[in-house]
Design a protein that fits this description.
The complex is a heterotrimer.
Chain A: H1 3-6, H2 12-26, H3 30-51, H4 60-79, H5 87-111
Chain B: H1 2-14, H2 18-22, H3 27-56, H4 66-101, H5 109-128, H6 154-157, H7 162-190, H8 203-235, H9 249-282, H10 289-302, H11 318-346, H12 355-378, H13 380-386, H14 390-420, H15 426-452, H16 469-499, H17 537-542, E1 543-545, E2 551-553, H18 562-567, H19 569-573, H20 583-600, H21 602-621
Chain C: H1 5-10, H2 16-41, H3 52-55, H4 58-83, H5 87-117, H6 126-157, H7 166-192
Helix pairs in contact in C: 2-6, 2-7, 4-5, 4-7, 5-6, 6-7
The chains are: A mainly alpha, B mainly alpha, C mainly alpha.
Chain lengths: 116, 626, 195
């Protein structure tokens, strides 16, 4: 198996054939970018808003983590084009993030720290 | 000024003279510069080792005082790891990767030149610390004195600027390693010749790829740790300050999080070299190629989960100790798979007993001892006894000198003819091997015994009557023997370059693509980019198998002859090669200047930044090739 | 079609520079991971003040985080502009991104000065040590990003960035967005979540 195949990269003929139909999908237009930007802005507003709601203090941390994960994902998928680009790039970023995350958890737990 | 620069640049393109080396972006020249520089640092680290051994040769010796001893053992370790084994491996990456994958150069030739100059600058910067302790002629040394691992809080309390030089030096060297790590991953992913699929790549290419990934993921961790140390030392930060609530143990975690992958960064390239040498001199393909590849990947992956076996005695608790003990035992499995595949490669082969094979087999035997003592260390209660004794010193040298350096010497003997066009003398080569092999064993096996007798490491002297005198004296004799073997090697290189024993393109009946082109290779490597049809493609161009499976030469197969080469001179000049450039060198000079400024005076930082910026902008704006 | 099928079989078909950038970003995950890890390890461990809850000004930081987030939008609009050959759009959006980046940096400078007035420094306690080093490293990354953006802006103004060179903008964008997502993490983990 070649690297290209394993990474889900399309061969030349395949690529050409698809080129026309997926042109729009491959390069989101400015409108789509602005939409994503609006969603990001709204999530940020929600984050700050719920920070001040005392009633949900107990569940605040998980909610905040989920919200920031959503923001993170939106930016890397759309603005950094991982949704449209080679899967190799996604694997590299995921690899770096997972390695950093796992090592951080182990070191923090052995040294008596807490993640949140 | 501009005219002069242009003239110098033209001289660079003419491929002759000093300027052509300073501006070169040719991977082969960069590889040679890496190799020669690393060898000079090897001599330096070796002299440091001999000083240590002479000091320890008898009890209550006073060749070195305790302060000098600390500085010299720190510099010995740091030099051998960061300035010798890593750059020697980098030399082989540079020399071989483009040739083995059928490319004309690496993906980013100027970045490659930048890596080398940064490495050179970092090495010189680190060694400059020797001069900062006062009058060096009176023996007042200024080098770092906290060991190559620089444990906090010792490294925080160390007076003078030695540790600062050490930390900045490692940061600079990290830039060089990371740049070449990125470069070789892209090169191996993207620059392979048609048909060179991943599972047709020579083992050395695989190990380079794996090592490069380890480098780009491990280096950032030590980068942060070194910055934390520097912030603590220079600006009064509290990362490792116990009084402010900081945990000195954090340093050990960060250091070994980097340090254990680093161990495999040191050994995997040597494993790759041995995996090339053994098949050639057994005239057999590498046994179990996919298993060797997968073992390499497994080792790299598992190397992230074993770091705390350096820290059993720090009070991690029984659960963490057991978990890291198990993971450490497990990493011996892929390592063992590799060793059995190497042995099986030799088994039944038509052995050609030449110097590279001696070193490769020496590698296997010494590495097995190193690996097995490693398994002993992985057992927690056993390690409690061995921690900080000479047993550990013996183990790590068994792996790094007996392992990595023997592997690298195998590579030097194997590929020397490819890049110089001359064979190294066989007799002197074997003398070198036997002296080094015997010297190695009578240096480090006694250290195993010394360790079990309880001799602690990092002591500058020991009292009479502890029972350590005899073995220490033996170890020192062994170290001197290793020193003699290196002199034999240097003599051999000089002799062989003069002797003019033309190697021809394919002196060993090689298997991989680099043997298909003339020795030394032309600047453009391949006249035509080859099309690869099999693993060990060049072998299959030369031989086909008869019905009994024995190789039969193919008429007209084999390497390009040099005569052919001359005919193609005109054609060769039509090949578009990247232009030489000053800017990687300029940018690289900026880094040690900045580091000097951060230690001494902020004004110097501005100068360094200016140099760096000039280098980077010049680099970005000049056309990559004209 | 200049590519032979054999050539495509072996390369990844990906641009060298883009692959390099992604490898760099993957490696940066470990850098910021280590810095964030150190902050989390020492959170709540300072033996003397000032403590985060005395200093953090959430409304101010939220505006700052919002500014950086919006700079990602303008960055990606710059890319869209050059990809459709709109030079004017490219210049406008590049300039906006650089200005938003500078605004973020001035916010950070203001914040650092304020905290300093309140007695927080690199050496005052663990909070000061880990906070300044983490956010300082991030700020240094933003500064480099702004310099890249300004350099590209000059090139665009001189007409040296054509539609075919949109990769330059894409690469700068990847770096810029990465720095932005790091701040998304920092904003939540360091500012909003306080035990």
């Amino acid at each position: 198996m070649t690297l290209a195949e394993s990474r889900g990269i399309k061969g030349p003929t395949e690529r050409e054939a698809e080129a026309e139909e997926v042109k729009e999908g491959a390069h989101p237009g400015p409108l789509e970018y602005v939409k994503i930007g609006l969603i990001l802005a709204v999530i940020t507003a929600v984050e700050v808003g719920i920070y001040y709601i005392e009633a949900i203090e107990d569940v605040l941390v998980p909610i905040l983590i989920v919200l920031s994960a959503i923001k993170f994902t939106l930016v890397v998928l759309w603005f950094m084009h991982l949704r449209f680009d080679s899967r190799l790039f996604s694997w590299l970023l995921a690899g770096g993030l997972m390695l950093a995350g796992i090592l951080m958890v182990i070191v923090l737990s052995t040294l008596g720290g807490r993640l949140v | 000024m501009v005219g002069a620069l242009r003239r110098l640049r033209q001289e660079g393109e003419s491929y002759q003279g000093v300027w052509s080396w300073l501006t070169t972006v040719d991977h082969k020249r960069i590889g040679i510069m890496y190799g020669v520089t690393a060898f000079l640092f090897f001599l330096m680290g070796g002299i440091e080792a001999l000083l240590l051994r002479i000091q320890l040769s008898s009890p209550n010796n006073a060749v070195l005082d305790p302060d000098q001893y600390n500085r010299i053992f720190t510099m010995h370790g740091t030099t051998m790891i960061f300035l010798v084994v890593m750059p020697l491996s980098a030399a082989f990456f540079n020399l071989l990767i483009p040739l083995m994958i059928g490319a004309r150069d690496v993906a980013f030739p100027r970045l490659n030149a930048f890596s080398f100059w940064v490495f050179l600058g970092g090495g010189l910067f680190m060694n400059a610390s020797f001069f900062t302790g006062g009058n060096i002629l009176k023996g007042e040394l200024g080098a770092p004195d906290a060991g190559w691992f620089g444990y906090a809080p010792l490294s925080l309390q160390s007076a003078g600027t030695g540790i600062d030089f050490w930390a900045f030096g490692l940061l600079i060297l990290g830039v060089a390693s990371m740049a070449s790590g990125f470069n070789f991953i892209v090169t191996i992913f993207n620059m392979r010749a048609p048909g060179m699929t991943l599972l047709r790549m020579p083992l050395f290419v695989w190990m380079t790829l794996v090592t490069s990934f380890l480098i780009i993921f491990a280096m950032p961790i030590i980068t942060v740790a070194l910055f934390q140390l520097l912030f603590d030392r220079l600006y009064g930060a509290n990362f490792f300050n116990f009084e402010a609530g900081g945990q000195p143990l954090l340093w050990q975690h960060m250091f070994w999080l980097f340090g254990h992958p680093e161990v495999y960064i040191l050994i995997l390239p040597a494993m790759g070299i041995v995996s090339e040498v053994l098949p050639t001199f057994s005239r057999k393909p590498l046994f179990g190629y996919p298993f060797v590849v997968i073992s390499g990947l497994a080792i790299a992956f598992m190397s992230w989960g074993v770091w705390a076996h350096h820290m059993y005695t720090t009070g991690l608790g029984p659960i963490a100790n057991s978990a890291f003990g198990v993971s450490t035992i497990l990493i011996a499995v892929p390592t063992g798979i590799k060793i059995f595949n190497w042995l099986a490669t030799l088994w039944g082969g038509a052995i050609s007993l030449k110097t590279p094979l001696f070193f490769a087999v020496g590698f296997i035997s010494m590495f097995v001892i190193g690996g097995l003592t490693g398994v002993i260390h992985s057992i927690v209660p056993s390690d409690y006894q061995q921690q900080d004794t000479y047993f550990v010193v013996a183990h790590l040298h068994q792996v790094l000198l007996g392992g990595a350096m023997f592997g690298l010497f195998a590579g030097i003997y194997y590929w020397f003819p490819k890049f110089t066009g001359r064979l190294l003398h066989e007799g002197w080569g074997q003398l070198h091997f036997w002296l080094m092999f015997i010297g190695f064993n009578i240096t480090f096996q006694p250290m195993m015994i010394l360790g079990l007798l309880g001799m602690p490491r990092r002591i500058y002297s020991y009292p009479e009557g502890a029972g350590w005198e005899w073995w220490n004296a033996v170890a020192t004799v062994g170290a001197l023997l290793i020193g003699v073997s290196i002199l034999v090697f240097m003599f051999n290189v000089v002799l062989s370059l003069r002797r003019n024993d033309q190697a021809g393109p394919d002196p060993w009946d090689g298997r991989t693509l680099e043997w298909a082109i003339p020795s030394p290779p032309p600047a453009y490597n391949f006249r035509e980019i080859p099309t690869v049809r099999a693993r060990d493609d060049f072998w299959h161009q030369k031989y086909e198998e008869d019905e009994t499976g024995r190789p039969v030469p193919i008429v007209g197969g084999g390497a390009q002859e040099p005569e052919e080469e001359e005919h193609a001179e005109g054609e060769g000049h039509g090949i578009h090669m990247p232009s030489p450039s000053f800017f990687p060198l300029i940018a690289a000079i900026g880094l040690p200047i900045i580091a000097t400024g951060l230690i001494y005076d902020a004004a110097i930082v501005a100068v360094g930044v200016a140099v760096l910026v000039v280098g980077i902008y010049g680099w970005a704006l000049e056309p990559a090739s004209e | 079609m200049s590519h032979t099928p054999a050539a495509l079989e072996t390369g990844t078909g990906l641009d060298n520079r883009k692959l390099l950038m992604w490898l760099f970003l993957a490696s940066e995950c470990l850098l910021f991971g280590s810095l964030i890890g150190a902050y989390l390890l020492y959170r709540g461990q300072s033996v003397v003040g000032p403590y985060p809850e005395d200093l953090f000004d959430i409304p101010f930081t939220s505006v700052s985080a919002f500014v950086l987030l919006m700079s990602s939008v303008t960055m990606v609009l710059a890319l869209a502009a050059i990809q459709r050959g709109d030079q004017r759009g490219l210049r406008i959006w590049l300039l906006s991104t650089a200005l938003l980046g500078l605004l973020f940096l001035s916010g950070q400078a203001f914040e650092f000065t304020e905290f300093n007035h309140e007695g927080l420094s690199l050496s005052s306690n663990l909070f000061g040590t880990t906070f300044f080093v983490l956010t300082g490293f991030h700020g240094a990354h933003v500064t480099v990003g702004v310099l890249i953006l300004l350099s590209l802006l000059v090139m665009a103004w001189r007409g040296r960035l054509t539609q075919s060179q949109s990769l330059n903008i894409e690469l700068a964008g990847l770096y810029w967005h990465f720095v932005d997502v790091v701040w998304i993490v920092i904003f939540t983990l360091i500012y909003l979540i306080q035990p």
